[in-house]
Amino acid sequence: MRSPPLPASRPDPQVARWIARELAAAPPRAPSLVITVWGDAIAPHGGAVMLPGLIRLLAPFGVNERLTRTSVFRLGRERWLAAKRIGRRSLYRLTTSGARRFEQAYRRIYAPPADAWDDDWDLVIAGSLPAGRRQALRDELHWDGFGILAPGVYARPVQPGNTVSTSLATHGAGLIVVRARDNGAADGASLTAAVPHAWDLAGIAAGYRKFLRRFGGVIERFRRAPGGNYDPEQCFVVRTLLIHEYRRVLLRDPRMPAALLPLDWPGAAAYALCRDFYRLTHARAEQHLAAVLEGPRGALPPANAAFYERFGGLAG
Fold first, then answer.
1. Which of 147, 153, 191, 299 has the fewest Cβ atoms within 10 Å of its own Cβ atom?
2. Which runs of E-coded beta strand occur in the chain?
3. For residue 164, what are the domain limits?
4. Are residues 94 and 124 in the same domain?
5. All residues at 6 or more sequence positions from 82 whose CB lies less than 8 Å from its CB, including other chains
6. Are 78 and 104 part of one and the same domain?
């Protein structure tokens, strides 16, 4: 859906200084930034853009043309993207597998923290596996929110819509997947008591608190802007840096139910900050994308319906 035209705006000098300081202090790596931009901003618009527009879009982050070309070439080699020549220019499009991988990766970013839990756990028990397969299994289960209870034993609280990845089948025989629950009558350690040892919750909490300190001030600056008069490019740049950093912290977070977390857990506050900024600025950021990017048929297609469902719903 297309939003009505927004009034003209001017860049905020204070926001501009914040962006400059952040990029000088912690410049994002170009390949990782391209993944963030593609998943957050380009995928909802069909996942295909002309390369010159992408080069212009990444320039405010200090990513030059050579780095952009190198990054998309690498994503093509890893089969996230496919390239197509249109005249003298290149169109880069998400592959089918790339779109599926982006959807899996970014679904967690926009979903609210877990709340309800019925006390059930998923357990994966691995038999004897070669070292390479054992490490691949561990990485995959870590991505799916599993912690290590003991060598070869992985656990995760069951949450709505969270099923054990079917790709575990690629690891072959020797895996046992079961549903379990603590037995209060039994004498011994419980799964719930193992949470602080199986997951680095203290390290993840520290990452969230650092994230809140880093972005809280600049977002408050946007909140105080009279009449919501935000500069489109600044909205896009700050949103991208916000989601880029949130993604880095979130990918370490198993997204535990609230019942298993400390009372002062900062993950909910980090999610709320992202949600509020996204809702505040998404219309302006979309305006910037439409002005800079081109799709395969010229103008960038409007964002899909799923985009407007992010963070519990965005105004159209």
1. 299
2. 48-50, 81-86, 89-94, 120-126, 147-150, 153-157, 175-181, 294-295, 298-299
3. 120-181
4. no
5. 76, 92, 93, 94, 95
6. yes
> Which run of H or of E encompasses 159?
none
Contact between 211 and 270 under an 8 Å Cβ cutoff? The reply is yes
CATH number, domain containing residue 71:
1.10.10.10
Based on its alpha-carbon atoms, the radius of gyration of the chain, rounded to whole angstroms, reads 21
How many domains does the structure of the chain reveal? 2
The domain that holds 151 is classified in CATH as: 3.30.70
Q: Looking at the domain assignment, is residue 194 inside a domain?
A: no
Q: What does the block give as tokens for 36?
A: 């963030």
Residue given tokens 């990782």 in the structure block = 32
Q: How far is CA 114 from CA 49, 117, 157, 191, in A?
A: 34, 8, 10, 18
- Is 168 in the same domain as 236? no
Q: Tell me if 65 is assigned to some domain.
A: yes
- Outline where 124-231 has alpha helix (H): 131-143, 195-198, 201-223
* Cross-strand bridge partners of residue 89: 86
Q: Which token pair is 155?
A: 């656990």
Q: Could you give the CA distance from residue 278 to residue 139 in angstroms, rounded to a whole number?
A: 30
What is the mean pLDDT, run by run of 10 residues, along the chain of 316 residues? 60 94 94 93 94 97 96 92 89 88 80 84 82 80 86 86 62 76 74 89 96 95 83 97 94 88 93 95 95 93 93 84
Question: Hey, how many other C-beta atoms are within 10 angstroms of the C-beta on 172?
Answer: 11
Distance of CA 294 to the CA centre of its chain: 24
Q: How many CB atoms lie within 10 A of CB 8?
A: 8
